[in-house]
Amino acid sequence: MGERPDVTIPVRDFLKQLGEEGIRKMVSRHYDLMRLSDIKHLFPESDEDFENAKLRSSDFMIQICGGPDYFNQHRGKPMMINRHAPFKITPQGRIVWLTCYRQALIETGLTETLICSFWEYINVFSAWMVNAEQ
Ligand code: HEM
Fold first, then answer.
1. First-to-final CA distance of the chain
2. Which residue has its alpha carbon closest to ligand 1 atom 10?
3. In testing the pocket of ligand 1, which one of 4, 26, 83, 94 has its CB within 8 Å of the most ligand atoms?
4. What's the pTM value of the predicted model, to 2 decimals?
5. Is residue 5 part of a domain?
6. Residue 32: helix, strand or coil by DSSP?
7. pLDDT (tens digit per residue) in 48-85
8. Ligand 1 in reach of 87 Cβ (< 6 A)
9. Is residue 3 part of a domain?
10. Which domain holds residue 122?
11. 60 alpha carbon to ligand 1 midpoint, in Å?
12. Ligand 1 mean position to 129 CA, how many Å?
């Protein structure tokens, strides 16, 4: 907990291959899987709020993959640790979050190299978000 290992952002080809719509689709799938998971209680209950959460997250992912800075435009500076602070994120919760992403990533059909590039990024950066022992 509290560890902040160095982060490497995904290669540019990830966005090139998937496109903005492909990233939004992947993020949507990630959220839908989380809604069925052990960490569903962390996320908005109403469909409208849930869809808006998908939008915020996909804005961020497009931006981090080298696309337009939609997240900054709509939400301001990322400050991801602060934004996650209101939620209890445990090491186990992180594993669930990552497991849902693993599934969503495989379903993109991208090459293993591209999937690994995105995975490296989320695997490391998600450790930054852990803020509770259990
Ligand atoms: C460690 C596992 C993580 C958990 C359990 C988690 C959980 C959450 C929760 C509960 C929210 C608020 C609801 C929502 O708007 O979706 C949120 C927001 C968000 N998360 Fe995470 N998160 C994790 C890791 C990450 C990582 C690694 C990233 C980025 C690479 C990320 C990006 C975001 C973004 C962009 C938002 C929206 C912030 C905003 O409202 O402006 N999260 N996350």
1. 10
2. 42
3. 83
4. 0.96
5. no
6. helix
7. 999 999 999 999 999 999 999 999 999 999 999 999 99
8. yes
9. no
10. 12-129
11. 10
12. 8
